[in-house]
Design goal:
about 240 residues; mainly alpha; 10 helices; about 80% helix; elongated
């Protein structure tokens, strides 16, 4: 039979993973990238920069669909790690590009365009869709609704903070500093996934909950209470 009697407190690691992934989804810098897409395309010398921005959105859709196949081939964890690293490199490339422009250093427009393209690929195949897939896999049914609500609230709150605070961040540290900030966060995302997020591909709910140590504390307490001499006297549910 499946797991039963779970409480939200039994699934602390699952909740941390869910909230962390949705936090990094918003703080990966996707809003900053989309805000600067037209500027990047203009700097790269493209004649119709606004049309190129539309194509960036289309590319997100195409690679997002492709991730449906890739996620079952390479697994959730690998795609998230790939996504974190590629987004980090993309932000570093854009940070250098805007810094070099202001400092009068070598900054080929192709670097900005390549960084933008790499970011779109990395985000679309990993950080964009995969957190939502994992969110539906790491909680028992008893707490899935409440846990998903909490994690989603974290995601929307993070989105609000990024949207409201990005312009101020840009004014304080400039475009180069803003992209470097998001690059550091993407590196943090890679570390977070590597340390806390297990691979869930091809695993049953029971196996995933075991990996996430869901209900581990409750199981230990019950095992300690279920000594043979106490079972009959206390009528403990140890079967």
């Amino acid at each position: 039979s499946g797991p039963s009697g779970y409480r939200l407190a039994d699934c602390k690691r699952s909740l941390v993973v869910a909230m962390g992934l949705l936090f990094f989804l918003q703080f990966s810098g996707i809003n900053a990238i989309m805000m600067y897409a037209t500027d990047i395309c203009t700097q790269a010398g493209l004649e119709n920069a606004e049309f190129s921005t539309v194509m960036v959105t289309v590319a997100q859709l195409v690679f997002g669909v492709a991730s449906c196949v890739l996620v079952e081939t390479f697994g959730r964890r690998r795609l998230l790690q790939f996504s974190g690293l590629t987004m980090c490199l993309s932000h570093v490339g854009l940070s250098y590009f805007y810094w070099a422009q202001g400092a009068g250093r070598w900054a080929p427009p192709s670097m900005a365009l390549a960084s933008l393209s790499l970011y779109v690929i990395g985000f679309s195949v990993g950080m964009g869709p995969v957190p939502w897939i994992i969110l539906g896999e790491i909680f028992p049914v008893e707490v899935a609704g409440a846990a998903s609500a909490i994690a989603t609230a974290v995601g929307w709150t993070s989105s609000f903070i990024v949207c409201v605070g990005f312009r101020d961040l840009q004014l304080i540290v400039g475009a180069a500093g803003a992209f470097l900030f998001f690059g550091v966060l993407c590196l943090g995302c890679f570390i977070f996934v590597s340390v806390l997020v297990p691979e869930t591909k091809g695993k049953t709910l029971e196996e995933i909950l075991s990996l996430m140590q869901c209900g581990a504390a409750r199981t230990v307490k019950l095992a300690e209470a279920c000594r043979p001499e106490d079972v009959e006297a206390q009528k403990l549910p140890c079967a």
